[in-house]
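We treat protein structure as text, and this decision shapes the records that our systems exchange. Because each token names a local backbone shape, the row as a whole describes the fold. For reference, a complete record is included directly beneath this paragraph.
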Amino acid sequence: MTVTTPATRNMITDYYDVIASAVRRCGAVPGDAPGTPGFAPGFDLPELTPQVREFYAAATVSWSPLGHYGGHDLTMLDLTANPGTRTTKTFASMVIVARAVEHIRRTGERLCIVTPTSGNKGVALRDSVARAYAAGLVTPEQLSIVVLAPAATRHKFRHDALADDPATRAVNPLLRYTGADPEGVKALGRAFVDEYAATAYDKRGVTLWYTLDLRNYLVADAARAAFEADVSPAAGSRWHAHAVSSAFGLLGYNLGRDVLEAAGDADPADRPGFLLVQHLGTPDMVLSLRHGSFERDHCPAYTLDESRGVWTQDADLRFPAVTDDPAEVLDPTFYTHRPVTSPAMNALIGRHGGDGIVVSRRECVRRYPVARQWLPDAGLTLPEDPARLREWSILMALTGVCNAVDRGLVPAGYEIVVHGTGSYCDDFRIAEADAEVSTLADVVAAVLDQR
């Protein structure tokens, strides 16, 4: 069943019970998060007071029909309404910050969130911390955040409320990692917490919380399934399409389905299939799904067409037919190699159906005029010039869907729900980093020596 008009909800306040059930089902145990020795963040959320509802106000989600393509109904599940982020990272970030607020209220501890990020996660966590300040839930002395991001994603970071005030900026540093490998932010962030959390607590009285844990994101994304069941229940002939790096969002959706099915609120036989959309820079999940291996030997061989100045291949329908570079990085947000989530997604697709496809920038640009026509029906706009895009997730997903349909990869008559996980352009001021770092000593100097 497809809704014919847009439907909008608050994905946190309207589905608090589903998120709470997802927490219990996820088996999250307080006290096992990396951070200060003995730290137990817990998964309790604050009572829904007017202040808390004000904090969650930007967590809206909508479901809108886009039209038809190749015999398939297309629907947009838009997760980008928060003007401070324009990405789906809003929801998990708000839940993480809400948990931090509850922990501070319960224990009286000062808490500092530490997160490595490719970009969007860090933007959303900073936005959530600022919203917690504005709603009067905590003060900068009680809760702060350290964000560590690769230099390649500088254009993702918008100047925000934390940077506007010198006092909040001082305790919420944005660190730009200048190392060669963008994924190095993960190891560096973890090393800082592992080696200096005790020092931060003993000398500064601050508890560190390293939030890069799959469960921190699964529990909020479980509400996607509850929203779908609320506005347009699946009926056995639906795929969900998602531009992915590690597919946290789809794993969270499936956790939500587990919750609903266990409660008798959804039929296991009607669980949708999944279309994974990736780019050539990191096609790892598609390779794993199709070949059981992350090795790039399974990528098709591209041939340079010198007359056109492009690379082409026609051996694999699941890879771009044309690209400017066989190792093209379409969007640096999608940077995860060998994701540990692949086996779980492979199993879900094996059970419920689905596929994977890789797209190129040239393919996305070719689909751009059609995407610009579709998206206003979902309340979304793309700039006239695709060169202005700073976040390609929605365009990648739509391109992957169209290519998959054209190449006969989607079962006939299936509806396709596109997860709109991110889209923004160059209409904001870029945030300046508070420090550039490449070593653990640099991070220590930027964080601990400045407090």
